């Protein structure tokens, strides 16, 4: 989702690094399966589903679609179109933030689950951190592409939590991050984005666990402050 870069097209090695459209495509399929029983099965009427939930779904699908299109454009050396499409990220990110808040508020008011507030905050932090790093390094192709693809890792948490079990989603995210780092090192690719992502993930997870252990009532207090 690069917005500015040197005029020269990507090198063949950059193509191999960035052309991983299959990853967001696979995540899209998994997400459709995960949310089918609670959302997509209600098509076309979507009885009982609020407009705020629709808004959140649309912004998330738009981000995944962008994540599929951008590496394909790089692979086909359409850097100009890649840049133009990448500018949509700046408009889409605030909408995604609003969607995160709306869907959390909508869900909590329907069914009070204070522990999910911190979990949602964890996913949101990790997503926006990785996207922010990707935009910050938009002129460094290897870093930019890696961070933008890594920004989809937080999507595994709600997806796998519904498909399998919430208990495996966070450990599997950690396994994915470590595996990507090992793979990048073996193939002699740039490893710094994966190291940064792994540090951010473990740091945020440690902070989350610390808050939950040191302040057992933090989730309830936060719920009362936000939704009472």
Can you give a write-up of this model?
The protein has 228 residues and is mainly α. It is 75% helix and 0% strand. It has helices at residues 12-18, 22-35, 51-75, 79-86, 88-110, 115-136, 141-150, 156-163, 166-186, 192-214, 218-227. α3 packs antiparallel against α5 and α5 (88-110) runs antiparallel to α6. The longest helix is centred in the N-terminal third of the chain and has 25 residues, at 51-75.
Produce the secondary structure layout:
Elements: H1 12-18, H2 22-35, H3 51-75, H4 79-86, H5 88-110, H6 115-136, H7 141-150, H8 156-163, H9 166-186, H10 192-214, H11 218-227
Helix pairs in contact: 2-3, 2-8, 3-4, 3-5, 5-6, 6-7, 6-10, 6-11, 7-10, 8-9, 9-10
């Amino acid at each position: 989702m690069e917005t500015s870069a040197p005029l020269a097209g990507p090198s063949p090695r950059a193509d191999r690094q960035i052309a991983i459209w299959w990853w967001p495509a696979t995540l899209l399929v998994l997400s459709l399966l995960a949310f089918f029983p609670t959302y997509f099965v209600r098509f076309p009427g979507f009885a009982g589903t609020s407009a705020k939930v629709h808004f959140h779904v649309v912004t998330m699908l738009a981000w995944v679609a962008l994540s599929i299109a951008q590496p394909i454009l790089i692979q086909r050396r359409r850097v100009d179109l890649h840049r133009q499409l990448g500018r949509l990220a700046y408009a889409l990110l605030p909408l995604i933030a609003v969607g995160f808040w709306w869907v959390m508020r909508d869900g909590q008011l329907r069914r009070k689950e204070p522990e999910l507030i911190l979990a949602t905050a964890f996913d949101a932090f990790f997503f926006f951190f990785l996207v922010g790093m990707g935009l910050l390094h938009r002129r460094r192709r290897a870093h930019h592409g890696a961070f933008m693809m890594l920004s989809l890792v937080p999507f595994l948490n709600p997806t796998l939590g519904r498909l399998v079990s919430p208990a495996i989603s966070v450990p599997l995210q950690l396994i994915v991050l470590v595996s990507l780092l090992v793979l990048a090192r073996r193939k002699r690719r740039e490893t710094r984005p994966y190291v940064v992502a792994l540090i951010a993930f473990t740091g945020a997870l440690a902070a989350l666990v610390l808050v939950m252990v040191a302040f057992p009532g933090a989730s309830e207090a936060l719920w009362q402050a936000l939704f009472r």
